[in-house]
């Protein structure tokens, strides 16, 4: 599993968690909504990004991507466009210096995200635009740039979303939970697809969920999108493409391994 870093402090925590659990790997970066942080760092933005670089260099066996980084114009109250673009540019520098792929975020940017990626595409090896909710045209632009599309519950809310995912090539998709958020909810169009799959032989059923005060190792925490719920995303994507879940899972696993784990010595 990949644990996402959203700031210098969070990235350090993510790496520390990954050192405690051999099956976990981290990303290191500054989320676009945190783009004001580098300028407020005691040593300034240069020191902030130097800290990210040092964290990567000291943890090459645990860090698999630069990010989460990108642009988010839905939440400009946290960081304005200028701060986000400046911060995003520094991540391209980081990816170029370390040779790592990128874990990318794009929300309602009116073409600015694609423009910046296109201008800097030569500086990084590859990556995924996660939690994709855009149009078929947006997806096509990203695919043409050699990127992968990341799908989770938020990517499957509407019938339009389902149509977009149905039209994307399986060998360019990745799936995720983005936990503890972005679950498939009963109000989502994808919930109907899940209901169609539920009665099929071998269909996966989510573990029981209990309030955190009553949690045990055999259940999930109620209200939290646990990592195992990636199985629901898989079921929807497979059904949309008329493919077997095992085949879809294998293809996405291989894509994920090729993009993010090629330089890591692990037990896969």
Automatic annotation (TrEMBL):
Gene3D superfamilies: Metal-dependent hydrolases. A divalent metal cation 1 binds at residues 68, 178. A divalent metal cation 2 binds at residues 105, 130. Keywords: Hydrolase, Metal-binding, Nuclease. It comes from the Eukaryota. One of its GO terms (cellular component) is cytosol. Belongs to the metallo-dependent hydrolases superfamily. TatD-type hydrolase family. This is Uncharacterized protein. It comes from Coemansia javaensis.
């Amino acid at each position: 599993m990949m644990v996402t870093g959203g700031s210098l402090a969070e990235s350090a925590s993510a790496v520390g968690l990954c050192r405690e659990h051999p099956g976990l790997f981290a990303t290191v970066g500054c989320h676009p909504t945190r783009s004001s942080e580098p300028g407020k760092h005691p040593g300034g933005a240069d020191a902030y990004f130097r800290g990210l670089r040092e964290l990567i260099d000291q943890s090459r066996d645990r860090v698999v991507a630069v990010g989460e980084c990108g642009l988010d114009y839905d939440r400009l109250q946290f960081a304005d466009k200028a701060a986000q673009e400046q911060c995003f540019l520094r991540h391209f520098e980081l990816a170029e210096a370390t040779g790592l792929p990128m874990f990318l975020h794009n929300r309602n940017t009116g073409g600015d995200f694609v423009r910046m990626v296109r201008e800097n595409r030569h500086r990084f090896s590859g990556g995924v635009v996660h939690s994709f909710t855009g149009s078929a045209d947006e997806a096509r632009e990203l695919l043409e740039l050699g990127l992968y599309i990341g799908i989770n519950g938020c990517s499957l809310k509407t019938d339009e979303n389902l149509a977009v995912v149905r039209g994307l090539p399986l060998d360019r998709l990745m799936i995720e939970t983005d936990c503890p958020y972005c679950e498939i909810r009963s109000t989502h169009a994808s919930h109907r697809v899940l209901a169609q799959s539920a009665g099929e032989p071998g269909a996966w059923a989510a573990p029981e969920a209990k309030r955190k005060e009553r949690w045990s190792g055999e259940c999930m925490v109620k209200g939290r999108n646990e990592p195992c719920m990636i199985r629901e995303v898989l079921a929807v994507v497979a059904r949309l493409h008329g493919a077997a879940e095992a085949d879809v899972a294998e293809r996405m696993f291989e894509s994920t391994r090729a993009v993010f784990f090629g330089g890591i010595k692990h037990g896969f």
